[in-house]
Amino acid sequence: MKKPGMVMAVALMVLGPAVSAWALPVNLPEGIKSKDKGILLPEGQLPDTVRISAAGTYDYFSRDMNDYEGEVTGQVAGGKITISFVHKMDLYVTLGGQMGTRYNYHDPVFGDEVTFKYTDDFAWGIGMAGTLYEWEEEGWALFADGGFRRASGMDYRYIEDGWGTHYPADFESMQMDVKWTEWQVALGASKDLGFATTYFGVKYSDATLDARATFYTDMYDLGDDESEDNFGVFVGVVIFPAEGVSLDVCGRFLDEQAIYVSLTVRV
User: Fold this and answer.
1) Region 199-213 average pLDDT
2) Best CA proximity match to 33, nearest among 235, 195, 267
3) Most distant CA pair in the chain, distance
4) Beta strands 245-253 and 196-215: pairing type?
């Protein structure tokens, strides 16, 4: 027997922490990866102090939540365009989609295991990364990265609980609309090994959502909710399979468990 009132109550209770768990990858400055020229544009098309690169990106994340023994998982795939200046500072834009996001938790009211599967949504972001200091002879560098990402229009694809699987068609008047923003700052160090560059560091991130849910004729304004866990660490490696091409793999830990992969081509 379906109990839409109970399901709606659970939805309102867990919607906030589920969405606020998303995270941003750390971006290593392009000038630390390589100072090679681009491989697509003819030489002389850009000033020597400017570089443009394009990347395909993939980010998988999982985070345990303090409330209700919950866990959120998801993926973000898309692209990134970066403009680099004097091999020191990057400005970048990310465009892509949030996919396969789900939130699993133990319902403390009814004792059920509940899964929320959310719809895929468009996400965009901007950021800046820069080299703070370089020890060229030793191959070490200190860098910082700061980013912002936003998505809106999220709804639920289905809800699984002890009474079965519930789809939007089962609740004609049940709708969710979630808008979220997130920012992150990271401080790290890198080491040039010649054939590869390794890097590691610490980061701080925060996410805020503005959520509303409609059930029959009632509107529920959930207001703003912020993420609970903010501090984490990261470690990554960049390899260079060809001139002007780099492959970056980075893991993020403590506040989340995540893996980020990007393939970059210098234009």
Assistant:
1) 75
2) 195
3) 70
4) unpaired
Q: Which CATH number fits domain 4-266: 2.30.29, 3.30.1120, 2.40.128, 3.30.70?
A: 2.40.128
Find, among 234, 240, 239, the residue nearest to 260 by Cα: 234
Structure-model confidence comparison of residues 103 and 201, the more confident one: 201
In the chain, domain spans = 4-266
Q: Averaging pLDDT over each range in 45-49, 74-78, 170-174, 228-232, which range is the top one?
A: 74-78
Round to whole Å and give the CA distance between 94 and 57: 9
Q: How many residues does the chain have?
A: 267
Per DSSP, helices labelled H in 27-110 are 30-33
Burial of residue 167, with CB atoms counted within 10 A of its CB: 0-12 exposed, 13-18 middle, 19 or more buried = exposed
- Predicted TM-score (pTM) above 0.85: no
